[in-house]
Amino acid sequence: MPDRSYNVLFLCTGNSARSILGEAILNRSGQGRFKAFSAGSQPKGQVNPHTLTLLRGLGYDVSGFRSKAWTEFAQPGAPALDFVFTVCDDAAGESCPIWPGQPMTAHWGIPDPAAVTGSDAEIAVAFDDAYRMLKRRIDLLLALPIKKLDRLVLQKRLKDIGASEGATQKAKGELA
After folding, report:
1. Domains within the chain, CATH numbers bracketed
2. Taking a C-beta distance cutoff of 8 angstroms, is the pair 64, 35 a contact?
3. Residue 43: left if φ>0, alpha if ψ -120 to 50, beta else—which one?
4. 109 exposed, middle or buried (CB, 10 Å; 0-12, 13-18, 19+)?
5. To the nearest whole percent, how much of the chain has pLDDT over 90?
6. Which of 28, 86, 158, 159 has a CA-to-CA distance to 169 between 20 and 30 Å?
7. How many helices (H) and strands (E) does the chain have?
8. pTM, whole model, 2 decimals?
9. Alpha carbon of 166 to those of 31, 57, 91, 153: distances in Å?
10. pLDDT below 50 — which residues of the chain?
């Protein structure tokens, strides 16, 4: 019998860059073990064009990505969530809805590539960095023996992942 699939929600304020990247990476790397979604507390209404350019360049199909509110995942009939990861400090500080399924949560804050100004090359580097940091966190998640860990140990490991390379001060503070 195949392992069960875990539902993961990546949250950010605008749902236009980091959370979309997390959704894309986990859906590809999770190979059916995970089903990833993304949402925002104050969605921008469109995915950042630099996010789409990066993902297209890496061979992702971007046709299904959209900027949406986190309330979609707190409604009846929404997928029962196993994990919710905030990837921006603003979303981590907001009062989240009550999620179906009582998911485990962790803050995986990384710098916002959409806030970077400068040349196209500088902006592209910021998006590449965000992708790399999220990919590393997701690889660490995928390496966890989730079914073998008790809830407290798993929660600690998820927070440790969030404090890894490139973490925002708030994410590092989660361990304090």
Report:
1. 6-168 (3.40.50.2300)
2. no
3. beta
4. buried
5. 74
6. 28
7. 6, 4
8. 0.91
9. 25, 23, 18, 23
10. 1-2, 175-176
